[in-house]
Design brief:
Blueprint: H1 34-37, H2 44-64, E1 88-89, H3 92-102, H4 108-115, H5 121-132, E2 143-144, H6 147-166, H7 171-178, H8 181-190, H9 201-213, H10 221-240, H11 246-298, H12 305-326, H13 331-352, H14 357-360, H15 364-373, H16 379-394, H17 401-415, H18 450-457, E3 464-468, E4 474-482, E5 489-492, E6 498-502, H19 504-512, E7 516-518, H20 524-538
Parallel strand pairs: 1-2
Antiparallel strand pairs: 3-4, 3-7, 4-5, 5-6
Helix pairs in contact: 2-20, 3-8, 4-5, 5-6, 6-8, 6-20, 7-9, 7-10, 9-11, 10-11, 11-12, 11-13, 12-13, 13-15, 15-16, 16-17, 18-19
């Protein structure tokens, strides 16, 4: 069972699971936290799992600390300070007392490590703990950490190293989560089920606070209110948490209720984003269909200035609007197509010099009236455009079409200064599209792995991914919608706003360039724990995300 995937069963009178370090099974030396945790011992399977985790930590320390821990000189004394082989491990009450002294205000040394990703939190935290023992009347040179305590500190320190560096945390949000390091060390000592059970209230609270802070710069009143509530929750935890882990359950439930209101607003924003994208794709599809219908009817005919403007600007716009409102199979759309056919007939008659042109021209004004009106061109402006088209088709005064083209365009611009059709909206550039990788519709021009494309197509709605910029900046995004028209996928940010719209092939090309990563899990604690476990298995150095 993966520590990040275990489930939490509430037990004991305190409303939380037990399993403090004082209730260790398997003959391991008790460190005296059982009275604080006030819960039942770990189940045999949980004990075995935690023992495996401890062994992984020891191996990791051996690789990264030359066989010892912070300030250690060997595996057997890895927790003792240099030069004091007879140092005594802090007792459980002493550890809790030292942590309680550090809890209200993060020490400067630890604050520097929290603010600087290059400094591992674990090293600085253990230094601060032993230095603070003097405030209890102990000689810091004669104090050390027990192996079990060091395990807890290393796990929490590594977890916060990953969480603070990997999440999109800025400003007050990063500061708030950084202040939780000490109380979460306490929880780790009192109830190590936090590492084993997914629904442990301390994990749930950290996940909720991270969700509220990630990407939240307080740009809107709702964002500021959420940060304010998160700050209030952290302040209560720092001031009220002594040894009763049940406070995490109380605070999590209260904050979750507030967070749920925020989530509802995000869901509404997400729906509006999907609806806007759906409308954009319908618009693009209708416009492309109109272009195809026009090209089919024009064939290889050459259009002069006024006919070009009439058909490619006004008629395309009109046909697009008609399809969106009435559908491609409607009588209104068929009527729009007949306008093109009439203009084509006029073009053919003009080119052949047939007398039928004079019979066709009188029909232009009534046929083009709805086309021009859909772009706001009516009255005198519409009449002038039709007159210019008639002159162009008939080659008035025997002037060749080629010679007259410049005069017609100039006359059109003078007569119709406000006759520009409403523009077809163009999608904004996707913020997440990495520089150097241009999203294109031609999949043959993309360098991607077909297996990656299939993996992306199989993603469930709600899956979280990461878009990585050239500078390494990570932008988390959620798969929110897939187009039934183009099969493109819409990703939104944590506030429900559009971040990227791309095809599976385009996204697979991003994966090949390490510009897109799929998150196996998204909740803060579970994701950080997942990465910590990977680091322990591979012997990665502390502080790497």
């Amino acid at each position: 069972m993966d520590p990040g995937q275990a489930s939490y069963a509430e037990e004991g009178p305190g409303g939380h699971g037990g399993g403090g370090y004082g209730s260790q099974a398997g003959g391991e030396r008790s460190t005296g936290y059982g009275g604080y945790a006030s819960g039942r011992p770990l189940e045999p399977s949980e004990q075995a799992l935690f023992s495996t985790l401890s062994e992984m930590l020891r191996s990791w320390r051996h690789v990264n600390d030359g066989g010892g821990g912070a300030g250690a000189e060997g595996g057997a004394t890895r927790s003792r300070r240099d030069g004091s082989p007879d140092a005594r491990p802090l007792t459980a009450p002493e550890m809790i007392s030292v942590l309680s002294m550090l809890q209200p205000e993060v020490p400067i040394g630890l604050r520097l490590a929290i603010d600087d990703p290059s400094q591992p939190i674990t090293q600085r935290l253990k230094t601060e703990l032993l230095a603070s023992a003097q405030r209890l009347g102990l000689d810091p040179e004669q104090a050390c950490l027990s192996p079990a305590d060091e395990d807890a500190i290393d796990l929490v320190g590594m977890l916060f190293d990953v969480l603070l560096d990997e999440r999109e945390l800025v400003g007050s949000g990063r500061n708030l989560l950084g202040r939780l390091v000490v109380p979460y060390i306490k929880v780790a000592l009192l109830d190590r089920r936090m590492f084993l059970r997914k629904t442990h209230p301390a994990r749930r609270l950290l996940n909720a606070l991270a969700e509220a802070c990630e990407g939240n710069e307080g740009d809107t009143p709702h964002d500021r209110a959420l940060l304010s509530k998160a700050e209030e929750t952290v302040e209560r935890l720092l001031s009220d948490f002594n040894e009763n882990v049940a406070i995490f359950k109380t605070l999590e439930e209260e904050f979750r209720s507030f967070l749920d209101q925020h989530r509802k607003r995000v869901e509404l924003a997400e729906k509006r984003t999907a609806e806007a994208q759906r409308g954009q794709e319908r618009l693009e599809t209708a416009r492309h269909r109109a272009l195809a219908a026009l090209e089919e009817r024009l064939g290889d005919r050459k259009l002069r200035a006024v006919a070009q403007t009439t058909l490619r600007r006004y008629w395309i716009h009109h046909a697009t609007v008609v399809e969106l409102r009435h559908g491609e199979d409607s009588e209104q759309y068929a009527s729009a197509l007949r306008v093109v056919e009439l203009v084509v007939s006029c073009l053919d008659a003009a080119a052949s010099g047939a007398g039928s042109l004079s019979a066709l021209l009188p029909n232009l004004e009534s046929a083009l009236a709805p086309v021009l009106a859909s772009s706001g061109t009516t009255g005198q402006s519409a009449e002038e455009l039709v007159r210019l088209l008639e002159r162009e088709l008939s080659g008035e005064d025997g002037t060749s079409m080629e010679v007259a083209a410049g005069d017609v365009v100039a006359e059109l611009e003078t007569a119709l200064p406000d006759a520009e059709p409403a523009p077809i909206p163009v999608p904004a550039r996707d913020e997440a599209a990495p520089e150097g990788l241009r999203l294109v519709s031609d999949r043959d021009k993309l360098d991607y792995d077909p297996d990656d494309a299939e993996k992306i197509r199989a993603l469930a709605m709600g899956t979280w991914v990461e878009f990585v910029g050239e500078d390494g900046t990570v932008q988390p995004a959620k798969l929110s919608w897939q187009s039934p028209i183009s099969s493109r996928l819409l990703f939104v940010n944590r506030r429900g706003g559009r971040l990227c719209v791309a095809s599976a092939e385009e996204l697979a090309a991003m994966m090949r360039n390490d510009r897109l990563r799929i998150r196996a899990v998204n909740t803060a604690f579970e994701r950080a724990m997942h990465q910590v476990l990977g680091k322990l298995k591979t012997g990665g150095t502390a502080g790497e995300a």
